[in-house]
């Protein structure tokens, strides 16, 4: 009995040894055709990363109702690819570049969104920015036939802040200010079919994040075939896939919606125009330098001018009709022959006023006004989101918007030349924000829809269109201040410099803040009589407006639509009495009023 047991145990041991040697022989025979790696995994346990993108269970369902497959279309093939990828990631000597901006990038990628975005696109080369090693490996599984490369990008220096990119002041006269530099991707060139970038998205201030700007500019550089400075007859650009949390949208004037091929949840796939990208990349990285260094007009062919226009917006009552009539006169006086388009809310600007605008030279287009949902009823900013309708002027490639309380003193057609001033170009208002009184924009219905989609969610710092647009177009481009010269002084000592600028013909357009010239007596700027408004007072600017007023033709336009109402005259007289009681030191209140409009209302 015991002998039988011992014999049985001996046979068992022999079988175990034979099995072991059999596996070893298979491993030796298989070496060279790649399967030995799988055998070793089966026989000799080895360590694998505790967390792997392939350990996660597959999605429960696909939007189509079917379980998604990989590009091979078979689960068995996918399983084999996973095993091979694990082994490859362990044995490969390639160094995956560390993400330059890992902070705020730790959000889960929905890989099925990427697969849907890149379906049947014939991709051969893929460049990746800001992905970790496990994500790079997953990319290679998602696109097994493609040459997938992780691109190195050094992070921006700590000193490169948004304030450094968008300073409140630069040397505009000589344009000698410089911008901080952002490192270029390495290697910079590979003629990628797709450049994919994963963007950080912090909870607050995400739209003014140097990291997001740097990554998007780098993706644009990588997408250009031949490099960002090369121009070839067959100028091409690869696709750009931007991955970002849905609330943190890509830069709308670097990757505009008109170039958007598809969007799936957090994946935006763009087919950019190479010339468009190349021009954007030639611009200063922020408002630290002028986007248009010269204000001199270069004689050019009239070809293309039919696709360019100046535009203004009138959405409430008739208070700005006189200003718009004078604006049209001033544009024509400057020598410009570009189209003039006035977007007018027909229900709130009367037929007689619309006819007067047309007689002044404006193409009057009906434009239903848009309410600001965050404004109080009757407030000054209740309807100023009507400015968004400028993006619906799609029969033009470029529109220069001018507020109706501006006056053009010098030809501004340089803003149209060869796309020198791209969307969105404007003058600085304060700090990192622009003033929306003069803007260069590129009409697009999808941009209009984007603006409308955010009216309930995007906060405006000043409660109006200017604050809203500053949150959307954070990557704006700086125009010289004299393209939108604000009638405003920070301190009394600045008045002499302001007067010199206006007298030396250095200013191209004056923006009349405070009480408007046509609502004052022509004798002097009535902002002097109100202590809170004196910073808006300028006798020189006031005189320039009235000189244009006197050239308005036909004369009945200025007589009828620039008249003073009795209520306005009463207010002006009260302000004069208040200034006299306070013995205001400027003494304007003591001047004799000769404006005949005052006499008309007293008769």
TrEMBL record:
<keyword id="KW-0808">Transferase</keyword>
<dbReference type="GO" id="GO:0016757">
    <property type="term" value="F:glycosyltransferase activity"/>
</dbReference>
<feature type="region of interest" description="Disordered">
    <location>
        <begin position="54"/>
        <end position="97"/>
    </location>
</feature>
<dbReference type="InterPro" id="IPR002495">
    <property type="entry name" value="Glyco_trans_8"/>
</dbReference>
<dbReference type="InterPro" id="IPR029044">
    <property type="entry name" value="Nucleotide-diphossugar_trans"/>
</dbReference>
<keyword id="KW-0328">Glycosyltransferase</keyword>
<feature type="compositionally biased region" description="Polar residues">
    <location>
        <begin position="64"/>
        <end position="73"/>
    </location>
</feature>
<keyword id="KW-0464">Manganese</keyword>
<comment type="similarity">
    <text>Belongs to the glycosyltransferase 8 family.</text>
</comment>
<dbReference type="Pfam" id="PF01501">
    <property type="entry name" value="Glyco_transf_8"/>
</dbReference>
<protein>
    <recommendedName>
        <fullName>Hexosyltransferase</fullName>
        <ecNumber>2.4.1.-</ecNumber>
    </recommendedName>
</protein>
<dbReference type="InterPro" id="IPR050587">
    <property type="entry name" value="GNT1/Glycosyltrans_8"/>
</dbReference>
<feature type="compositionally biased region" description="Low complexity">
    <location>
        <begin position="74"/>
        <end position="91"/>
    </location>
</feature>
């Amino acid at each position: 009995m015991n002998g039988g047991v011992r014999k049985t145990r001996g046979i068992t041991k022999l079988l175990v040894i034979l099995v072991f040697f059999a596996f070893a022989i298979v491993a030796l025979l298989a070496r060279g055709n790649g399967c030995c790696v799988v055998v070793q995994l089966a026989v000799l346990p080895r360590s694998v990363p505790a967390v792997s993108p392939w350990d996660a269970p597959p999605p429960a369902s696909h939007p189509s109702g079917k379980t998604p497959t990989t590009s091979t279309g078979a689960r068995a093939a996918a399983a084999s690819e996973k095993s091979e990828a694990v082994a490859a990631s362990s044995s490969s000597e390639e160094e995956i570049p560390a993400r330059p901006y890992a902070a705020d990038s730790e959000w889960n990628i929905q890989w099925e969104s990427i697969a849907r975005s890149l379906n049947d696109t014939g991709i051969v080369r893929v460049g990746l920015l800001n992905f970790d090693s496990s994500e790079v490996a997953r990319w290679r599984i998602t696109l097994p036939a493609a040459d997938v490369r992780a691109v190195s990008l050094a992070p921006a220096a700590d000193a490169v802040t948004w304030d450094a990119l968008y300073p409140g002041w630069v040397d505009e006269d000589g344009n000698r200010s410089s911008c901080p530099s952002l490192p270029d991707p390495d290697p910079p060139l590979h003629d990628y079919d797709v450049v994919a970038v994963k963007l950080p998205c912090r909870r607050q201030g995400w739209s003014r994040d140097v990291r997001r700007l740097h990554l998007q500019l780098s993706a644009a550089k990588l997408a250009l075939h031949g490099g960002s400075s090369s121009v070839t007859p067959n100028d091409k650009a690869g696709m750009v896939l931007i991955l970002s949390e849905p609330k943190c949208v890509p830069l709308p004037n670097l990757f505009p919606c008109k170039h958007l091929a598809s969007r799936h949840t957090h994946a935006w796939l763009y087919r950019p125009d190479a010339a468009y990208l190349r021009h954007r990349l030639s611009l200063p990285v922020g408002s630290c330098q002028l986007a248009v260094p010269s204000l001199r007009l270069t004689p050019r062919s009239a070809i293309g001018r039919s696709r360019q226009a100046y535009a203004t917006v009138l959405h409430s009552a008739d208070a700005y009709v006189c200003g718009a009539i004078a604006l049209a006169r001033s544009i024509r006086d400057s020598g410009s022959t570009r189209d003039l388009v006035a977007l007018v809310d027909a229900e709130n600007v009367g037929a007689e006023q619309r006819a007067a605008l047309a007689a002044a030279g404006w193409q009057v287009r009906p434009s239903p006004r848009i309410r600001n949902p965050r404004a109080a009823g009757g407030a000054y900013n209740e309807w100023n989101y009507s400015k968004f309708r400028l993006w619906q002027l799609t029969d033009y490639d470029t529109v220069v918007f001018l507020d109706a309380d501006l006056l053009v003193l010098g030809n501004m057609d340089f803003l149209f030349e060869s796309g020198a001033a791209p969307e969105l170009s404007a003058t600085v208002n304060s700090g990192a924000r622009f003033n929306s009184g003069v803007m260069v924009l590129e009409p697009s219905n999808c941009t209009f829809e984007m603006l409308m989609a955010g009216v309930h969610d995007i906060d405006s710092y000043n409660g109006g269109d200017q604050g809203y647009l500053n949150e959307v177009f954070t990557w704006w481009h700086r125009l010289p201040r004299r393209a939108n010269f604000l009638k405003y002084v920070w301190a009394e000592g600045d008045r002499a410099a302001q007067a010199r600028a206006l007298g030396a013909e250095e200013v191209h357009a004056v923006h009349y803040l405070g009480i408007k010239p046509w609502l004052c007596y022509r004798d002097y700027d009535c902002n002097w009589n109100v202590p809170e408004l004196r910073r808006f007072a300028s006798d020189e600017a006031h005189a320039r407006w009235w000189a244009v007023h006197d050239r308005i033709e036909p004369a009945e336009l200025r007589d009828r639509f620039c008249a003073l109402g009795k209520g306005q005259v009463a207010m002006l007289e009260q302000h004069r009495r208040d200034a006299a009681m306070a013995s205001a030191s400027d003494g304007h209140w003591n001047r004799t009023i000769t404006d005949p409009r005052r006499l008309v209302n007293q008769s």
